[in-house]
Design brief:
This protein has about 375 residues and is of the alpha+beta class. The protein has 8 helices and 21 strands.
Length: about 375
Amino acid sequence: MTDTPIVTFENVTKSFGRTKAVDGVSLAIPRNAFFALLGPSGCGKTTLLRMLGGFAHPTSGRVLIDGEDMADVPPNRRPVNMVFQSYAVFPHMTVAENVAYGLKVTGVPKAEIGPRVEEAIAMVRLDGMAARMPDELSGGQRQRVALARALVKRPKLLLLDEPLSALDKKLREEMQLELVRLQTEVGITFIIVTHDQEEALGMASDIAVMKEGRILQIAPPRQLYEHPTHRFVAEFIGASNSFECEVLGIEGGMARVRAPLLGELSVERASADVRAGTLIVRPEKMRMDFSSPDPDPGEVLVEARIDQISYFGDLSVVYLTAADGRRLQCSRYNTNRIDKGDPPPGTPCTIGIHPEDLLLVGD
């Protein structure tokens, strides 16, 4: 039984009138994973989560938790708990009363409630705050109360629906670390819905990228970023530069292509299914040269001019226009505290690209 996925979607479709919010999704989520459903608004990720929680029902297909079909199991009987974006912390209850609420309504013996509440509060690092009211807490602390209230019931699954979107950037980053720590310590499966690429990359062990009700790719964060199989995935996960190309031939995992500005060259295919598509290269993998170009062996050179440079502290993003009018961007890490300054807009430069940093992805 331990090899059985904790969650299985079997060809699940959910329609609202003529609109398919989820379109034939099959997905298996392993035990003890931190799994992310990632995609733009309206792609179906929250609908999938709601079907897991029992708040929506498939139009067709099956949803299984721990091998059991959930078709006739109401939300309060499912081994899941959900944490919402709005926290939903009761304002008239103390921290301890909020955490204990779910145990009381499900009839857990009074003698067991106290120790479990204390354990859950310690788990989310709110020791000493049990008697506080929600209006005495910060946004991050209220989110921790919501997490403790979900975890105290010891579910098999914790469902997180955009749980950090209401927090400021610094607090959001702190809570990301806390969620990863919690998932590791409690050893249950976390499934998070988010449209924030950095959030998914920083927390999840595996990510499913969705578009228009379908899953385009499932992979660990590094593989998803470095080996996207679709142009949409490449452009949604971080930034990328795209070059339309003609595929001249296929040999193993490589393709011989011809592309504007780049000429004819051999590149890696994102997967065996990709036999035509678009070349992509990440901004940080392109080298900029403002003096006489001195290319590395095998490097392809592209002439461009600078349009704008955006400074983000640790790195700067340089926006350029290539000789054919194509818009490109490069990333430059700011490694020195003392900098000579950025070249002004209109400055010509040469971009160096190694063919091994190009990837042929499907459209």
